[in-house]
Amino acid sequence: MIDLTPIFQAVLALLAALITYKLIPWIKARTTNEQQARIDAAIRVAVYAAEQVYGAGHGAQKKAFAVAYLEEHGFTVDSAAIEAAVCELLNLSTTSEMIVETDAPHDGLTDDVK
User: Fold this and answer.
1) What is the rounded CA–CA span in Å between residue 86 and residue 92?
2) Which helix (H) or strand (E) element contains residue 52?
3) Distance CA 79, CA 87 (A)
4) Which residues of the chain have pLDDT under 50?
5) Mind giving me the DSSP string for 15-50?
6) 83 near 99, Cβ under 8 Å?
7) Which of 40, 62, 85, 111 could make a disulfide contact with 50, Cβ separation 3.0–4.6 Å?
8) What is the pLDDT of residues 26-41, one digit of tens each?
């Protein structure tokens, strides 16, 4: 009878190596991306909510609101992440204003619908 134990051990060692070097880093990278997306979404929600609550100005209160909101939901973020979301909000708001100004003289109907 032939002893297949060394072959099985080699196959198991190969599988363990593949799992260690390929599968585990892939899983970690995917989890990190999903977590980062979740954090980014939470930061945007906090910044938009602070803007809605306080309106224009009141920067310190809005930042404190955003930080408190994030902490209540289990997130600890640095000021740079919040500032980035604020810049995104400002850029979005500027783009919206430009679209509204561009479309203002137009009544929204195309020539073939009138």
Assistant:
1) 10
2) helix 24-54
3) 12
4) 97-114
5) HHHHIIIIIHHHHHHHHHHHHHHHHHHHHHHHHHHH
6) no
7) 62
8) 766 776 778 878 888 9
